[in-house]
Amino acid sequence: MLNPADEAFGARLPQGVLRPVTEAYLEEPRGRLHGKAGLIAAPRDLDETAAIVRACAEARVPVVPRGGGTGLVGGQVMWDGPAPLILSLERMTAIRNLRPTEDSLVAEAGATLQSVHDAAAKAGRMFPLSLASQGSAQVGGILGTNAGGVNVLRYGNARAQCLGIEAVLPDGSILRDLKRLRKDNTGYDLRDLLIGAEGTLGIITAASLRMVAQPAGVGVAMLVVDSPAAALDLLALAGERMAGCISAFELISGQGLGFVAEHFPDLRQPWSEPPRWSVLIEIGLPSGLNPSDALEGLFAAAADKDLVSDGVIAGSLAQSQALWDLRERIPDGNRLVGAVASHDISLPLDELARFITDADAMLAGMADVRINCFGHLGDGNLHYNLFPAKGKSRDAYDDQRGRLSDAVYDLVMARGGSFSAEHGIGRLKVAELERWGDPGRLAAMRAIKSALDPFGIMNPGAVLA
Amino acid sequence: MLNPADEAFGARLPQGVLRPVTEAYLEEPRGRLHGKAGLIAAPRDLDETAAIVRACAEARVPVVPRGGGTGLVGGQVMWDGPAPLILSLERMTAIRNLRPTEDSLVAEAGATLQSVHDAAAKAGRMFPLSLASQGSAQVGGILGTNAGGVNVLRYGNARAQCLGIEAVLPDGSILRDLKRLRKDNTGYDLRDLLIGAEGTLGIITAASLRMVAQPAGVGVAMLVVDSPAAALDLLALAGERMAGCISAFELISGQGLGFVAEHFPDLRQPWSEPPRWSVLIEIGLPSGLNPSDALEGLFAAAADKDLVSDGVIAGSLAQSQALWDLRERIPDGNRLVGAVASHDISLPLDELARFITDADAMLAGMADVRINCFGHLGDGNLHYNLFPAKGKSRDAYDDQRGRLSDAVYDLVMARGGSFSAEHGIGRLKVAELERWGDPGRLAAMRAIKSALDPFGIMNPGAVLA
Q: Any idea which architecture B344-414 has in CATH?
């Protein structure tokens, strides 16, 4: 049994760590969930973090870790059970030991992704993980959820950027593993176990991260394709020509561009009528090869195979940015329209095109919805989101939402996909994990959770019920 | 307490899985360790593997998993305690569901790395993990030990090639997670936990692996550098010019080339007198860029900065292969000379050059040894190996070996390095892990081991004492 984080418990914490309980700590970006909190604690360093967790372990008080609060599955808001202590990493924001010649830096958990980008750029390097929410998202949350974003195709997700971690385990003990090594085979991979565990196995307090060199030449293009199948063929063709130098390959639907046109009319679009399907491709090349030439060569080869019908190749940094702006406004457009249901899914690449065709057809027979399917095609990761028909409101779909999502997930899982590609489980997808998770895997997860957190104080209700 | 795998126990196993106990199952490549075995079991499929492990769990019989047997730290040979059952994956060798358009395949644990390479090549793709021992090393062992090799710099180690696993857990239950997904954030990362656990947390029976496109143009060069520091500067320069297209960057010492010249006199070397330091660089480029031109450009830029003094750029596939042969014969040369002590270490890149200088100086004051320092410089991974002085035998160093290795490891660890970069812990480095492992990390490892393998049947004595 867990106990609430009450005033008497607060008196046992290190001096000066408590902060007033304000709304900002209880919210999540979509505004649909509301957490509770007995206390908010913001430690200044590792030792204070450990002291807080140790006190929670002794008193059986639940701990909800909080980074930038940008997660989309409710991992950061606990609404059930005794009022938790929210452990905010907001005061641990240092970026230290940035080593450009080694391409490594150490960031504390509360540092924003943007601050890591800025520090790397200042040293002439690049941190290769980009998210729309990077101004608020923090390193601890990014690792805790194994965040993805637009450059995973080339550089991998958050997991792949991390060389080492420092963490406080559920009993308040400290795991010190801030290595700067590219190779280290000395025992179990606890780093990857904590990454993506969404704060249920411990709290990451700092991470050693890798940087990369900026590619010598960067090119961006938006190409019109006939279908997702053609987009995948284009990706394969690009893969063969580019030797892994594709930094992003994003699928964009006409519906998504339509929402953007409706809500951001000042944003110039390449076509007066949004093409039904297009892709945004970014390449980063070795020196000696002109990116525009490479993209023109790709376009010509793709046109020969009837894979592309039109396209724009950015001729300047401003034009590249304008194309990216279009892509990045799609989630904003979605928010303003208001989704009936959103699905962060992934599929094996060979199943992806058929999934889109089949899911579209299935939903057409089930409900009057508009579908905006977009996302990180190179990773097989789609955001398959449903919106009210024109003139209808989101609320009108309240009694259909569950049925529609179930049907989408059923189809995804039948094709060997994932019901959460990059957002994680949080509290919103615990039932889905129960339903579709492999029983052997779930049993092993429970055994590990019990072994490391026997009292269940770490982010209770997240990931595992 | 564990029980031996005796005849009575053998009668409880599935029909036809037992094989005669022969020497081949009890050996390791360096011929210095000798394991024992009560029974050898070679299951034909997942269900038989699970049945064997379940029987072992019930009877508390130790299980030693065996792949190609090429490991260098004794993970595959158990010489202490009750005679184990050796579980050989040699009959599970299928490669199935190879999907070139998706760049994925599923390999059973007993498939050799070479057979995965061949299958990928036949489909016009590439499996990006290369080891000297790939003709014998098997997928299960490669994942169990998170093997490295020469292409880690670009493609990552074994871990990074794996999209999903199927495994038998220590209680005989099955973990089914043969996903073909690039992104899947649905719970704890058990895949990465089993990878590198050296068979102590379960037995990987099959893996879903990624393939990659062959780069459009491949170039190889061997460049003479003044020092490891210059080699690192060259690596940084190449990184900036090549946008991540460096497939290998290997440091080679004059001592290593000398051993090769001595034992493989037919192998032509580029220089009559081996240069004190050189690097082998391989690049794999996008189409439109000539690899020889790119390497010549790199050489010119490096010469401008006084980083290189000489070099050969391969003009043909045969010449590329000849340069690689030189590199790959270095371990064979070492074996024929007979090392006093070998150290598979890694260092933060910023510490690496100074480490070599300091370690060389330290050893010069300690013993009369020849040092062959070579390895995967791009990963900070050195094979820092000590050999008898000319005319002396390996045995003459028996009473110095421990002291010399301790001194090397002490220096490595003081500089933030690792005492096992790619070979793992096995049974030979258990004491080192005890000594240098972070206490918080070790405690968490033990908790996980107890949770998943409460009777300690899985590869006892490996990784954790």
A: 2-Layer Sandwich (3.30)
Task: Mark which residues 99-138 of A lie under 8 Å from B by CB.
Answer: 99, 101-104
Q: How far is A14 from chain B (nearest CA, A)?
A: 22
Contact criterion met (CB < 8 Å) for A180 and B348: yes
Distance between CA A412 and CA A410 in Å, rounded?
5
Chain B contacts of A443, Cβ < 8 Å?
173
Does the beta-carbon distance from B437 to A186 stay under 8 Å? yes
Cβ proximity of A7 and A59 under 8 Å: no
**Residue written as tokens 């508390």?**
B60
Percent of chain B with pLDDT over 70: 100
Note whether A384 and A345 are within 8 A (CB). Answer: yes
Give the start-to-end residue ranges of the domains of chain A.
95-213, 217-337, 344-414
Select the CATH number that applies to the domain covering B217-337 from these four: 3.40.120.10, 3.30.200.20, 3.30.70.2190, 3.40.50.2000. Answer: 3.30.70.2190
Indicate if B344-414 has the same CATH topology as B217-337.
Answer: yes
Cα(A400)–Cα(A402) distance, integer angstroms: 6
User: A196 and B188: CB-CB below 8 Å?
Assistant: yes
How many Cβ atoms are within 10 Å of B263's Cβ, its own excluded? 15
Residues A65-100: pLDDT tens digits?
999 999 999 999 999 999 999 999 999 999 999 999
Task: Quote the mean pLDDT of chain A.
Answer: 97
Contacts of A420 in chain B (CB under 8 A): 184-186
**pLDDT per position as a tens digit, A166-186:** 999 999 999 999 999 999 999
Question: A272 CB near a chain B CB, below 8 Å?
Answer: no
**Rounded CA gap, A348 and B49, in Å?**
28
For A:66-85, CB contacts with B below 8 A are none
Which amino acid, residue A86?
I
Q: Answer whether B138's CB lies under 8 Å from A177's CB.
A: no
Joined tokens for residue A392: 């209808």
Cβ contacts of A51 within 8 Å, gap of 6 or more: A13, A14, A43, A172
| pLDDT tens digits along B95-133 | 999 999 999 999 999 999 999 999 999 999 999 999 989
pLDDT classification of B30: cutoffs 50, 70, 90: confident
Residue A47 distance to chain B (closest CA, Å): 14
From the CB of residue B437, how many other CB atoms can be counted at a distance below 10 Å? Answer: 18
A82 in Cβ contact with A6 (< 8 Å) = no
Give the best residue of B105, B184, B382, B433 to mutate against chain A (max A CB count within 10 A): B184
**pLDDT score of A250 more than 90:** yes
Q: Give pLDDT, residue B132.
A: 86
Q: What is the pLDDT of residues A109-128, one digit of tens each?
A: 999 999 999 999 999 999 99
Give the CA-trace dihedral at B85, B90, B94, B100, to 10 degrees.
Answer: 100
**HSE-CB of A89 using CA atoms within 13 angstroms:** 33
- So what's the architecture of A95-213 in CATH? 2-Layer Sandwich (3.30)
Q: How many CB pairs under 8 A join A and B?
A: 324
Handedness of CA B63, B67, B73, B79 (dihedral sign): positive
The confidence band for B423, taking pLDDT boundaries of 50, 70 and 90, is very high
B240: left (phi over 0), alpha (psi -120 to 50) or beta: alpha
ipTM of the complex: 0.97
Buried b (16+ CB within 10 A) or exposed e, B346-375: bbbbbbbbebbeebeeebeeebebbbbbbb
Closest CA to B347 of A212, A179, A165, A164: A179
Task: Answer whether B416 sits within 8 Å of A179, measured CB to CB.
Answer: yes
pLDDT of residue A30: 87
